[in-house]
Amino acid sequence: MNISIVGPGAIGSLWASYLHDAGHRVCLWSRQNTATLAIQRDDYPSLLLMNNDPQALQQSDIILVTLKAPLVERVLTNIRHHIAPEAVVILMHNGMGTADKIKTLMPENPLVLATTTHGAYRKAANHVLHTGQGKTLLGAANHKAKQCEFLVDVFNHALAEVAWHDEIEHALWNKLAINCAINPLTAIHQIRNGELTRTEFRDQLQSIISEVCRVMQAEGVDAIETNLAVMVDQVIHATSNNFSSMEQDIAHQRASEIDFITGYLLKCANKHKIGVPTNQALFQAIKQIEQRW
Ligand code: KPL
Question: How much is the pTM?
Answer without folding.
Answer: 0.96
